[in-house]
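One chain given next:
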Amino acid sequence: MPELHKDETVWPIAFRLVSEEKQIGRWTTLSWSIEDVCLYDEDEKDFLAAKDGGYCLPLELHKHERSDYRFNLSSRDPHLFIVCVEENEQLSPLLITAAQGLASGYMDGDYQVLHITTPLQVQAWMEAYIGRHGEQLEFRKKRCKDNSKDRKGRSSGN
């Protein structure tokens, strides 16, 4: 098992995936949910006990996703998204992210995306990350300004 650590860009999160059979019309299907979410802290014993029989994934923040984090945090109910793949009627998590744009990219494929409300501690951690690295601004290419008198603009009629 890789060594667990929490720092300014990574926070391990443990959880369990739970399935429940649901009847939809004549068909029975499995409905998946996330339970027993546990955040890594310095008391590793409690964390390891919480992830026993479950999964542990690192929530990793990236500078190029800062605008997604801000959008998520400014929503009424911020979420973490867990991307899972289904094999033999079992769901296995691949990654956990706070970037809705990244998670939605997986929804077009053969993946299932589950979500949980972002714990307040994680929201504060994400805010601190954005504070350290600044808001990500959308850059637009600006036209060069040329002040020479022989160059005419489009509206000049020439």
Notes: The chain has a mean pLDDT of 84. Helices lie at 44-51, 66-73, 100-107, 120-133.
